[in-house]
Amino acid sequence: MPLLAIETTCDETAAAVVTRGREVLASIVASQERLHAKWRGVVPEIASRAHVERIIPVIDEAVRRAGITPHGIEAVAVAVTPGLVGSLLVGLSAAKGIAATLRVPIVGYDHVAAHLYACRLAHGEAVRYPCIGLVASGGHTSLFLVRGPLELERLGGTIDDAAGEAFDKAAAILGLGYPGGPEIERAAREGDAASHRLPRPLRADRERFDMSFSGLKTALRYLVRPPGAPADTPAPTGRPRADLAAAFQQAVVDSILAKVELAVVKTGCRTVAVGGGVAANTLLRESLADLGRRLGVAVLMPPMALCTDNAAMGAIAWERLERGEDDGLDLDIRPGTDRAWR
Ligand code: KG4
Ligand code: ZN
Question: How far, in Å, from the CA of 185 to the mean position of ligand 2?
Answer without folding.
Answer: 19
